[in-house]
Every structure is written in structure tokens, then in C-alpha cells.
Amino acid sequence: MAKTTYLEEIEKTYNTIEENFEAAYSKCADKGQKDLLASARDVAKKAFWQAVAGDLKSKSPLAERACSDLKKANSKMLSAMKHMDDAKAVISAVEQAVRLAAAVAAMAA
Questions:
Q1: Domain range enclosing 77
Q2: What is the total count of domains within the chain?
Q3: pLDDT score of 57
Q4: Mean pLDDT computed over 72-99
Q5: For the chain, what is the HEC assignment?
Q6: What is the pLDDT of residue 4?
Q7: Is the pTM of this model over 0.90?
């Protein structure tokens, strides 16, 4: 998997959260959910900039599998963001995508 693919998926994670943050934040039921969402956005931003600064040339099967999982998680997150019916489901999808984005940024470097 090429650097651009890793970086593109990580960027997709960050951009999806950033573009939908206000709407998702407004759906949060309490301070705990708001804090989780804000923290996930911060981690996504850090993973993105880590990926931009990194070389991301790894061809390890683990990094490639994590990136493949990230693509799926990004799709699930985007779907959750589009529907915004359940704040818990949105936060869960965001957290999963962010964990994978951070893992890919670390593993692919």
C-alpha cells in the first residue's frame, strides 16, 4: 500500500470528524459524550499530522490490514454521521476509526 493510500485514509478520518463535529457535538446527551467526541477529534488531528510528517512506507501485512480496516471504519463512521440518530453509535464509530487511524500512522511509519 502506498504512502498516499495510508495518508488518504487517515486524512479521511480526520476530515469526516472535523466536517461533522458541530452536528455530532450538538447530538451528544451529556458532558461525557461531548468530552469523548472532542478527545477523538484531537487524536484524529494528531494522527493526521503524524502521518503527514511521517514517511509511511511500510509494506507490513499488519499495517496494510489495519489500513483496510480503517477504510471500513471510515465508511461506517460516515454512515453514522450522515444519519446522526444515535449519539452513542456516532461516538462508537468515531472512536473505532480514530483508533485505527492512529494505529496506521504508527505502524506505517
A1: 3-107
A2: 1
A3: 78
A4: 96
A5: CCHHHHHHHHHHHHHHHHHHHHHHHHHCCCHHHHHHHHHHHHHHHHHHHHHHHCCCCCCCHHHHHHHHHHHHHHHHHHHHHHHCCCHHHHHHHHHHHHHHHHHHHHHCC
A6: 52
A7: yes
